[in-house]
Specification:
Length: 732
Amino acid sequence: MDFAGETVRVLHVDDNSDLVDVTATVLEHEDDRLCVETATNVDAAMERLSVERFDCIVSDYDMPDQNGIEFLETVREGHGDLPFILYTGKGSEEIASDAISAGVTDYLQKGSGTEQYKLLANRICNAVGASRSRRELDERTRRLESLISSLPGMVYRRPNASGWPMETVEGEIESLTGYTAADFETGEVVWGDDVLHPEDCDRIWETVQDALAAQGEFEVTYRIITADGIEKWMWEHGHRVPVAADEPDALEGFVMDITDLRERERKLERYKRMVNTMPESACIYDTAGRFELVNQYLASFYGTTREELEGEPSSLLPKIRSEYEGDPYQDLIDGERDELRGEVSGEFPGHGYEVLEYRLTPLVIDGTVEGVVSVTREVTEQREHETEIARQRSILKAQQEAVIDGILVVDEDDTIVSYNERFVDMWDIPRDIVERGDEEVALEWAMEQVAEPEAFRVDVEALYERPEMTARDELELADGRVFDRYTAPVVAEDGTRFGRLWTFRDITDLTEQKRELAQQNERLEEFVSVVSHDLQNPLQVARSRLMLAREECDSEHLDSMDNALQRMNDIADDVLRLAREGVDIGMTEPVDLRETSDAAWTIVADGDEAAELRYVADENREWIAEADSDRLSGLFENLFGNAIEHGGPGVTVSVGLLDDGTGFYVSDDGPGIPADKREKVFEAGYSTAEDGTGFGLRIARQIAEVHGWEIHVTDSEGGGARFEITGVEFPE
């Protein structure tokens, strides 16, 4: 609306006094039509509204006594549709939604630049302009209704000349056109030039002239543009009237506004198009059950046209009737039923087996049932899909109940959507809590069960704040039990997150076993240290005495004693190594097999220059394995030592990767190991060499087992022994 020169009085309400003063100053600077008054609380604002007239209110949202929306509701109660703009620094979709629901005129967030004030000034002017326009329109409508009660249009007399200037007009001229009768009668406004829609001028002129020539009267519909720029539809009926011979033809007629009628016709046409484009079958049956009116979808379902289908009996009604006792369709006709709803399945012409969902209601006109309205929908695929979903849910539920873990699934709204009985039993949680679905209540219950409630809550909340995070840890309960807790997001193939999965496994016994094993390992380590000390001391004394004895006498028994002492020393070393290798491995890491075996070979083959180490290379594979590097070195040392001990001088040892990718092997070209001896060689103390201790291969197996690997012996390509280590993890 153009209200140039008119003052717009604005009341700005904000609890920040500095801000309201600045805003008032800047707004009045942006638009000199604005006169801005201020209030720093709602009570002061309401007091001013009670004694002064304002064109618009601008209010903050977050205020101490009432928020902006509550203030808006108070204003609406006492001041109707006074323009109200919510101008706030606290914005959210929820606030905007509440503001719109409460009837706010406009919603604008505060900004730090002058552009935001310019935008606010513009919004104020637009809101006031729209409000004034509405008031003027309401007043115009009131006058129009008053005129319609006496004359539903206007009558005229005009010459049949270009532009159709009016001589006289009477009736509701101004409400129809926005112009006064004087505007037309003085010639200031010409009907054909200033009112008739430009696109309709030529068509209407030709239609009227043709009709006058044929029968002396005419009837036309056309559009006009009112003084306010509004487009309307008019219906006009006119005729030629006798005039003096020297005067131009004159026309008299009646013009009536049919805009509402045209709008109803347009709505009816849109409704028809909507019905005919529905992806559902819609029709009206007559009282005999024949198609009276059908939409395009239903005609397509039967493979025909609407015209051919109308008048034909329905193939659906007999199927529906067969599902009931009596005649439910007749009950609709007789007014004994308000609705008939359900599903029916069977063979339909051209479609085969289908499942249809239907709804039938009486067609009542002027209190009389004249037929039945029917809407049906094909749900065959939907029912099959629902059946498949039910089957999948049953399988999933069976899987949940079959596992030993407690399972809980929470959706993105923190609502429990799935759980198994194991979860209920493990947490001893009341069933009504999980069935209620409130995850917060379940969390409160769990906090009472754990040993460290606050730490438990912090961990859970941190995981919900990071919905993409996966985590695993151990959870200690107040009653001494220990749960292995695992959680991960529930993610669809397209990356959409649907919530979070929690699993709990009772590892109380396993934890106790680990604790006992650690204690055993500590005692074993203590035992090894004691044995090492107690064995080495007597052996050292014996060697010293033997050395002194050699100085005092020369006896063949001294060499035998020396060999025996050396044998005892070797056995003691291997026993201690065997004991130590039984302790759990430390941290594993990616280890280069060739570098580790090179270092082990340097230690074992020292002094045997004829022995050779070879690698069976595979250029397409990495020689990196996940292992404890120290233990892996001990494995190679024992296997290399066995090969040198039994293969003799010049033995060749080969290291390679297994073809199936499960591990690696160590082989030699020595005498090999007979098939019936292959398991015995891993027994402690078993050796085929006279000076062997029989502990080397036992240690090798023990190192493999603590890694979770397996070791087996077979024949090498050269006829010697081949030790295969499997179950090895090779990092990607």
